[in-house]
Each structure stands twice: as structure tokens, then as C-alpha cells.
From TrEMBL:
<dbReference type="Pfam" id="PF02588">
    <property type="entry name" value="YitT_membrane"/>
</dbReference>
<keyword id="KW-1003">Cell membrane</keyword>
<dbReference type="InterPro" id="IPR051461">
    <property type="entry name" value="UPF0750_membrane"/>
</dbReference>
<feature type="transmembrane region" description="Helical">
    <location>
        <begin position="86"/>
        <end position="104"/>
    </location>
</feature>
<feature type="transmembrane region" description="Helical">
    <location>
        <begin position="51"/>
        <end position="74"/>
    </location>
</feature>
<keyword id="KW-0812">Transmembrane</keyword>
<feature type="transmembrane region" description="Helical">
    <location>
        <begin position="154"/>
        <end position="176"/>
    </location>
</feature>
<protein>
    <submittedName>
        <fullName>YitT family protein</fullName>
    </submittedName>
</protein>
<keyword id="KW-1133">Transmembrane helix</keyword>
<keyword id="KW-0472">Membrane</keyword>
<feature type="transmembrane region" description="Helical">
    <location>
        <begin position="21"/>
        <end position="39"/>
    </location>
</feature>
<feature type="transmembrane region" description="Helical">
    <location>
        <begin position="182"/>
        <end position="199"/>
    </location>
</feature>
<feature type="transmembrane region" description="Helical">
    <location>
        <begin position="116"/>
        <end position="134"/>
    </location>
</feature>
<dbReference type="InterPro" id="IPR003740">
    <property type="entry name" value="YitT"/>
</dbReference>
Length: 209
């Protein structure tokens, strides 16, 4: 039997449609820019985006195409466990990141990008973008769907769950990335997930979509 989400308290203010739309737009733009910064310095993040980025390094296929394809199987879980509205928002967010990843490379150019700076800023952008999406009941596919489901159903912190998955993905990059890039990627994954763990605690943010 599919798990049901607890009904929100009556006093909780519901997000307006324009608020959800703005959060999705800004969140996906932040994540697309973060992914571009990572790709320009051969860094790796975690979650489904990290797996897609790793495969793009190996296959030379564009990140956005792989990212969209990897997420397809997870929509069934989102539909069954988290509802069609969450699934529709997540599908839209994944499609926007796929689109913006392609366009951002045309909008932004770098002549010099320090790897340490890229790690901090890229992971900060991704963490903030994910936080925007999470607070408006939107995932970014894959591990994000599992993370939100586990937090809302069992109280497992989304950030800490993702941190464990991310380290597993980063471990698989041992033979692909240079040692210094791998260490910086671990730092970046930590920044992303600590950002989520600190700012997305159950009951702390009461707005709903």
C-alpha cells in the first residue's frame, strides 16, 4: 500500500502558484550554473546529477541528456509515493535543469576558474537551488525523490541520506577524476548536503505547495 503524506496543520500558509513557479525557476537556474562551474573544472557532485556528470565525463555525451534519461525510472516512485503534483513539479524541474544546462553554457563563459573557488561556489549554488525546490515540494529526480520520501515518511533527514549516497557515487569516480578533483568533489558534496541538513529540518519550514 502506498504511503500517505501527513496532512499539514490548518494554520500553515500554502504557497501561491507564482511562489512555486519562481522557486522552481530560480532553483533550477542556480543548479544549472553550479553544474556548469563543476563541469568546467572536472569536479563531481553527488545524487543523480553527480552520476550524470560522471557519465558525461566518460562518454562525452552532454550532461543534460544523460541527466534527463537517468531520472525517468524514478517518476514511478514519485507518482506512487508522493503524488502526481510532486511528480509533475519534479519532472518540470528536471526538464528545466536539462534545458538551462544547455543554455547556460552559451550565456556564461570563464577565462579562469580556480578549482577551490569552483567547489565552494558551485556546491553553494546547487545546495541553495535544491533547498528552494525542496521547500516547494519539488525534487530533482532520483535520489532527491527517495530523500524527500524517507524524510516525510520515516523522519530520516534528507541531507544526511543524500550525503551517504553521494559519497558512494564519489567513490565510483576514483578511476575517473584526478586525486585533487576527487577530494574537492567530496568537499563540495559535503557543502551541498550540510546546507540541506541544516536548513531543511522537519517542521522548521512550514510553507506547503
Amino acid at each position: 500500500m502506498a504511503a500517505t503524506l501527513q496532512a499539514p496543520p490548518a494554520a500553515v500558509e500554502r504557497h501561491q502558484l507564482y511562489e512555486d513557479a519562481l522557486a522552481m525557476l530560480m532553483g533550477t537556474l542556480f543548479i544549472a550554473l553550479g553544474m556548469l562551474i563543476y563541469s568546467k573544472t572536472m569536479l563531481l557532485t553527488g545524487s543523480t546529477a553527480g552520476l550524470a556528470l560522471l557519465l558525461s565525463y566518460v562518454t562525452k555525451v552532454q550532461f543534460g541528456i544523460i541527466f534527463f534519461a537517468i531520472n525517468l525510472p524514478f517518476y514511478w516512485l514519485a507518482w506512487k509515493r508522493l503524488g502526481w503534483k510532486f511528480t509533475a513539479r519534479t519532472f518540470t524541474a528536471v526538464a528545466l535543469v536539462t534545458l538551462f544546462s544547455r543554455l547556460t553554457d552559451q550565456w556564461v563563459g570563464f577565462t579562469h576558474l580556480d578549482p577551490v573557488y569552483a567547489t565552494v561556489v558551485g556546491s553553494g549554488l546547487c545546495g541553495t537551488g535544491l533547498l528552494m525546490l525542496f521547500r516547494h515540494r519539488t525534487g530533482l529526480g532520483g535520489v532527491n525523490i527517495l530523500a524527500i520520501y524517507l524524510q516525510e515518511t520515516y523522519g530520516i533527514r534528507a541531507g544526511y541520506f543524500q550525503l551517504g549516497v553521494d559519497f558512494a557515487i564519489l567513490a565510483g569516480a576514483f578511476f575517473v577524476l584526478a586525486p585533487d578533483r576527487l577530494l574537492l568533489s567530496v568537499l563540495g558534496a559535503t557543502i551541498v548536503n550540510v546546507t540541506l541538513a541544516i536548513n531543511h529540518k522537519p517542521g522548521r519550514y512550514l510553507g506547503i505547495s
